[in-house]
Automatic annotation (TrEMBL):
Role of this protein: Located at the top of the head of the 30S subunit, it contacts several helices of the 16S rRNA. In the 70S ribosome it contacts the 23S rRNA (bridge B1a) and protein L5 of the 50S subunit (bridge B1b), connecting the 2 subunits; these bridges are implicated in subunit movement. Contacts the tRNAs in the A and P-sites.
Primary gene name: rpsM
This protein's record includes keyword Protein biosynthesis: no
Taxon lineage: Bacteria, Pseudomonadati, Pseudomonadota, Alphaproteobacteria, Sphingomonadales
Protein name (Swiss-Prot/TrEMBL): Small ribosomal subunit protein uS13
Superkingdom: Bacteria
Gene3D superfamilies given in the database record: 1.10.8.50, 30s ribosomal protein s13, domain 2
Subunit note: Part of the 30S ribosomal subunit. Forms a loose heterodimer with protein S19. Forms two bridges to the 50S subunit in the 70S ribosome.
Family membership noted in the UniProt record: Belongs to the universal ribosomal protein uS13 family.
UniProt GO cellular component terms: cytosol; small ribosomal subunit
Chain positions covered by the region annotation Disordered: 96-122
Source species: Parasphingorhabdus marina DSM 22363
Amino acid sequence: MARIAGVNIPTNKRVIIALTYIHGIGRTKAAEIVEKLKIDPARRVQDLTDQEVLHIRETIDADHTVEGDLRRENAMNIKRLMDLACYRGLRHRKGLPVRGQRTHTNARTRKGKPKAIAGKKK
C-alpha cells in the first residue's frame, strides 16, 4: 500500500482514481500529475515502481496544497470571515446558509434538526 501525503492509497485502483483519495486532489489534478510524470493512466497503483511513487509524492509536495495544510487554510479563511463580522462571517457563526439560499423552509443540513417553537399557531 502506497502512502502519499499521509494517506494510504488503495493499491488495486487506477492511479488517477487512487490519487483522488488525497484531500485536495480531484480527478483533474490527478490527471495533470499523471500526465506531467508520463505515467500511463490505465496502470494500477500496485504496478507502480517505488521510484514512480516517490516522484508522485515529490510532485504533490512541491506543487499542491493537500490534506492538513488545506484543511487548516480553509478553517483560517472561515475564521477570518467570522472575526471580520462581515455578512458571510455572521452566517457561518450562526450556522445558517452562507450563499443566499432560502431558510424559511429547507436549509436543514445547515440548521440541524427542526426545533419546535412553543405557542406558534396560526
